Amino acid sequence: MFLSTRSASAHGFTLLETLVALIVLLIGVLATALLAARCMNTSHQSKYMNLAAELASEKLEDLNRWDVDDPQICVPSAGSSVGSLTQDIIGNPTTCPPPLNMCSSTGNSAVVSYYDDVCMATVNSTDCPNPTYGCFSETVSSPGSGSTVYTTTTHAPDGTITVTNPTTMPTPTFHRRWIIEANTPVAGVSAICLSGTRRVTVLVTLMDLSVQPPVTFQMSMVRP
After folding, report:
1. 24 pLDDT more than 70
2. 221: which of 84, 136, 176, 196 is 20 to 30 A away, CA to CA?
3. 154 near 161, Cβ under 8 Å?
4. Residue 121 structural domain
5. b/e per residue, 214-224, with b = 16+ CB within 10 A?
6. Sign of CA dihedral 49, 138, 172, 114
7. For residue 175, is it within any domain?
8. Separation CA 202–CA 55 (nearest Å)
9. Are 198 and 224 in contact (CB under 8 A)?
10. How many distinct structural domains can be found in the chain?
11. Portion of the chain with pLDDT greater than 70, in percent
12. 157 within a domain of the structure (yes/no)
């Protein structure tokens, strides 16, 4: 009688080998999924970081257009700074120092708020003159003593600009705070050269907490 033998390769995979292969495959799939999720999150955060940088630059340009003796940009004589990066300053009575070479003994006065909220988005709505291709909109809050006013400026691809006043702020929203400091020291620059100057710093924070890590961006400029 002849006994037939089969090679080990003809026996197939054992249950243990199958389980090990499945575990290795599962680890590879999970690692790929985590990498894809991380890439998506990084791309998502980068988009909001770019918007925050744009909003910080926009606010600095807006503050830079005011005259040196305007309450929106001046620092009262009684202090070295006005505004805050850590809390909302709303309705602050601001009186500028007397203008140089002027007969007036007091400067300009106004009630100033040193923060606002902004939402930048692409819209396809009735506010868009050409909703087929979409429009870019920017909504800014104007805090006041009584109520907050929202102003939305919509830019269409054909150059049309429309302004509306919604009753609520869209989301996601960026929160901006700024501080104005007088005669702030700058490394390598003489204090005499900095006399009469002011440093304006803007901090932009994304209020959507689902974006992690949180998005913040800070930018400064020095002006007369």
Report:
1. yes
2. 136
3. yes
4. 44-223
5. ebebebeeeee
6. positive
7. yes
8. 9
9. yes
10. 1
11. 82
12. yes
